[in-house]
Backbone:
């Protein structure tokens, strides 16, 4: 089932005579449970035409580096294989090379173009640019949320408490299995060059991308890896997820966030798997993170154009942090000291190292990590930008609504005012004593040391 409110017309141009329907894939890098691809196939079948999938690689994708490109290309290898099995041709254009056809060139022979939906400002601008320049109709389908953003709320929500009842009222309508349609027609004798991704190491060398961050030795991209981790979570972890998900010394997380970030797995698919296979209470707790919290983050970046800046925070949070920005700080670290884990705090250093090594930090430590950067930076404004810089550089799911909302939460977003204290004002405070009271932090430190040795 594909709900009508997932679909938006990005321009008022008409269909044109053509040889195929294009799916411009960007955010939803998968075949299975991809509402944008499914919509394209249905449109093409109705018009007795084949589907052509187009993907565009650019060197200057904001804040992306070798770690992100490697993970993405690992997933695209599987996408191309899956599309080939369905009889669908995929064209990958490496924009900087000038060797491959771009979307404008291919659209000259297309009836229309269908694309998926991105919520960050540059993703929206990218789609608006093509909406103006394409000679034909451009349709967008929201494929990476369970409930379409504007259907969930028509405005920026300020807490999970206001957002939760809105989205929960809609879940029965949207948690519906999706029928998968096969294409009726193939692009016979359509010969066109595409950027090669069969030999990943050599193909990546052709890209002029930032190589300062190595690919993750722990997390690898693609549907198969996502399915493997999801199966482990459902079969071995979900039963203790509620009680142990916040314990950094344990591993009871799903690790779905990198795969959701690149669209390599569908949130709807994950939710339906858990609904069918997990205990009811565990399912409810996980849906709070997968849908309520994740889609609240998307609500934030969609309705707040300053989501990546200090000025995008709630008025009360900005006011209290600015009031205390001249407070004496016992310790101030440079960005280089933070980046290289050179603080006095072994727990914070371990969190930073976990992120640098693997591309993913334990969620609870991510909150502590951000709070300490606020405490150890000259101003709250600089602290905010440091969090953005480090998170986007090293996290596989950086440059993401969840990342921006998570950082903003450390500075008061989606939270309430607490007891006033130096530096933090009324923003929630965290310290190492709290970590030790709750969890075996030495075990966490040792776990990260093992990662470094390996």
Residues:
């Amino acid at each position: 089932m594909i709900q009508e409110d997932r679909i938006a017309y990005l321009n008022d141009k008409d269909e044109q005579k053509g040889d195929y329907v294009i799916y411009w894939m960007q955010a939803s890098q998968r075949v299975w449970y991809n509402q944008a691809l499914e919509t394209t196939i249905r449109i093409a079948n109705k018009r007795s035409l084949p589907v052509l999938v187009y993907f565009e690689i650019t060197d200057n994708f904001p804040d992306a580096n070798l770690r992100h490109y490697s993970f993405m290309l690992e997933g695209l290898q599987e996408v191309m294989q899956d599309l080939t099995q369905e009889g669908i041709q995929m064209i990958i254009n490496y924009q900087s090379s000038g060797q491959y056809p771009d979307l404008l060139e291919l659209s000259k022979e297309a009836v229309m173009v269908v694309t998926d939906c991105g919520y960050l400002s540059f993703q929206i601008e990218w789609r608006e640019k093509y909406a103006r320049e394409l000679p034909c109709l451009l349709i967008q389908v929201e494929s990476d949320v369970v409930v379409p953003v504007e259907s969930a709320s028509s405005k920026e929500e300020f807490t999970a408490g206001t957002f939760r009842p809105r989205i929960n009222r809609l879940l029965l309508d949207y948690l519906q299995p999706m029928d998968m349609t096969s294409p009726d027609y193939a692009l016979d004798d359509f010969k066109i060059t595409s950027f090669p991704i069969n030999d990943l190491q050599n193909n990546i060398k052709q890209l002029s991308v930032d190589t300062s961050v190595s690919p993750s030795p722990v997390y690898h991209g693609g549907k198969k890896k996502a399915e493997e981790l999801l199966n482990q979570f459902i079969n071995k972890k979900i039963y203790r997820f509620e009680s142990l998900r916040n314990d950094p010394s344990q591993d009871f997380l799903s690790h779905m966030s990198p795969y959701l970030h690149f669209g390599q797995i569908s949130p709807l698919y994950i939710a339906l798997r858990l609904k069918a296979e997990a205990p009811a209470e565990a399912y409810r707790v996980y849906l709070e993170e997968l849908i309520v919290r994740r889609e609240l983050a998307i609500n934030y970046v969609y309705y707040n154009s300053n989501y990546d800046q200090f000025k995008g925070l709630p008025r009360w949070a900005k006011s209290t942090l600015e009031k205390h920005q001249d407070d004496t700080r016992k310790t101030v670290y440079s960005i280089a000291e933070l980046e290289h884990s050179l603080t006095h705090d072994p727990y914070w250093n371990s969190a930073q190292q976990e992120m640098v090594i693997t591309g993913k930090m334990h969620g609870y430590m991510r909150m502590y990590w951000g709070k300490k950067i606020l405490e150890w930076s000259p101003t709250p404004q600089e602290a905010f930008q440091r969090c953005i810089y480090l998170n986007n550089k090293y996290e596989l799911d950086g440059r993401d609504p969840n990342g921006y909302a998570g950082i903003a939460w450390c500075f008061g977003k989606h939270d309430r005012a607490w007891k006033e204290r130096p530096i933090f004002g009324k923003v929630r405070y965290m310290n190492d004593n709290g970590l030790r009271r709750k969890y075996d932090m030495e075990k966490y430190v040792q776990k990260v040391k093992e990662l470094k040795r390996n």
Q: What stands out?
A: The first helix runs from residue 35 to 46.
